[in-house]
Amino acid sequence: MSSILQKFKPKEGSFWETFKYKDLLYQLVSRDIKLKYRRSFLGYVWSVLNPLLIMMIMAVVFSFLFQRNLALFPIYLLAGRTMFEFVNNSVGKALGAITDNATLLKKTYVPKYMFPLSKVTSTMVDFVFSLGALVIVMVVFSFTQGKVLFSFWNLGIIIPIIQAYIFALGLGFFLAQLHVFFRDIRYIYNAFVTMWLYCSAIFYDIGMFYEKADRQIAEGSLPYAKYLAFVVENLNPLYIYIKQFRYFVWVPGIDNVPYWAAVNQWDFILGTIYALVMFAIGTYFFKRSQDKFILYI
Amino acid sequence: MENSNSQPLDAGFEYIIDVEDVTVRFNKSTEKINDLKEYFVKLVKHQLMFQEFLALQNVSLHIKKGEAWAIIGTNGSGKSTLLKVISKILKPYKGSVTVRGTVASLIELGAGIDPKLTARENIYLNGCILGYDKKFIDSKFDEIVEFSELEDFLDSPVQNFSSGMKSRLGFSVATIVQPDILIVDEVLSVGDVLFRKKCMNKMNEMLSMGTTLLFVSHNMQQVRAMCNKAIWLNHGKVLKIGDAEGICDEYETNIEAIKAEERKKRAQAEKALNDQAESIRKKREQMNAANKQ
């Protein structure tokens, strides 16, 4: 293996050059994680506690608001939110990764990919910690429901996690290079995230759209809710990852699986295509403009 | 330390560094356009002009293995830019740079030091930024600590360190390998005399082992002591290139001439000022005399 790695000579400025710097990636990621909780009293516990607290508030608020009586709603909610936060946080941090490391990039040669890459990776590590919150909620509901909610199916979450990781890398590279030239990208992105949140079916479910469409058809009006559902289910990669994630942690625990929660191979293929295309776009633009970074940071 | 595109050191090549007709271009535009609105406003007004500034113009430099080169010139002459081009931080706008061998550049000590991390963590982080792997740093860790003389502060955050301590840390990490090429940019002006001496010794030791040196300094004494070749840059162009002795002499007389010129100008300005003050004083005396009468 090591001999293969030694023979592996990536071109300078290509993404694959980062493999030569895997120890640096480890150092950057461990720095981010160490510094995040240094000098905090509870340390890593916050990674679990934070999503747990937010989930509790949201579960109470949205059970009142929607009254959907979705089975195991807290698990549904937490699964969606954890996934959303992973993509959103990693892209948000990757966005500023080049400009934040300006002094370093001006003084030494390091593959510039390293910085967005390390931010997305450290957020993923944090995300894995935060899965502890999901485990706690599932344990609690295993007791209240009187049945074990854990199964081998749960391990399937690795599929949407990998897809989301690649997607976040691509989007992170793309926005990081754009941010070097236009600092307003951050504000545009922040507004975009709010829209994205409402389009990702975190605290509602896509079944609401179909029911509304049925009513619209019965009334004889335009069933636009159906088109909305189509947009969310097919054009929002993040929803595809959330849907798959829920399929492996939420769906195995419920008795009557709603038709909109079932995942088929189409979701898997579409999600993978989105991830790879985003990655290709991100690295293409990053590679094209990386030599100009130093003139603008 | 391994650079992916640098070719292996090969006896077949006469030169270890080839800088071929390199031009580096910067945008000198007075205001940076950092947001979209400005960009479109300027685009509509046709003000998206690129005010070019050439930091280096058609510079060629060929360095043989084992030579010690000094890069001299006044501030803003392009010395640091040349070093950055050679260490791949900057891409040349025109021309090409070929480096055959591993490079250790001490352009700014501790550029990769994170003040919130401890010295121990920083040794690993900084080492990895320079391209070493973890195993290598593990094996050299004690040596680094010993050279930097920071044994007692290993686990305290670097933000509490003095600037001398920081550069000691940076220098110790950066010079732990035996690179083919060592690039030094006025970094030795920090730290106490003893440590500076230690650094000089380390560099001399490297030189005697066959490392090629590129050295930027304003101190001609240092240059004479360390280097056998020199390149003199002025406003991004090569003014003189050749043996260190001769160029140092010429540079010094030139600098002396410039300084003498400046002194002359200053003396003239002072004289004018004094004359003015004198005339004012005279006027006031006259007025006083008139008042008395």
Structure description:
The complex is a heterodimer of chains A (297) and B (293). Chain A has 14 helices and no strands. With 297 residues, chain A is mainly α. In chain A, helix 10 runs antiparallel to helix 11 and helix 12 packs across helix 13. Chain B is α/β, with parallel strands linked by helices and 293 residues long. Helix content of chain B is 43%, strand content 22%. In chain B, the strands form 2 sheets. Chain B has a 6-stranded mixed beta sheet, with helices on both faces. A 3-stranded antiparallel beta sheet of chain B has the order 2-1-4, covered by helices on one side. The longest helix of chain B has 49 residues. Chain B is extended, with a radius of gyration of 25 Å. The N and C termini of chain B lie far apart (87 Å). The N terminus of chain B is likely disordered. The chains are: A mainly alpha (297), B alpha/beta (293). The interface between A and B is medium-sized, with 32 and 35 residues.
Quick structural overview:
With 297 residues, chain A is mainly alpha-helical. Chain A has helices spanning 2-7, 22-37, 45-66, 73-95, 97-100, 102-107, 114-145, 158-181, 185-198, 207-219, 224-235, 237-249, 265-289, 293-296. Chain A is globular and about 65 Å long.
Keywords:
heterodimer; A: 297 residues; mainly alpha; globular; B: 293 residues; alpha/beta; six-stranded mixed sheet; three-stranded antiparallel sheet; 8 helices; 9 strands; extended; disordered N terminus
Instruction: Supply Rg of chain A.
Output: 21 Å
Number of H/I helices of chain B: 8
- Detail the poorly predicted runs of chain A: none
Form type of chain B: extended
The DSSP helix count of chain A reads 14
Which oligomeric form is depicted? heterodimer
Numbering strands along the chain, what is their spatial order in the largest sheet of chain B? 5-6-7-3-8-9
Sheet-strand content of chain A, in percent, reads: under 5%
String of helices and strands of chain B:
EHEEHEEHHHEHEHEEH
Task: Summarize the main sheet of chain A.
Answer: none
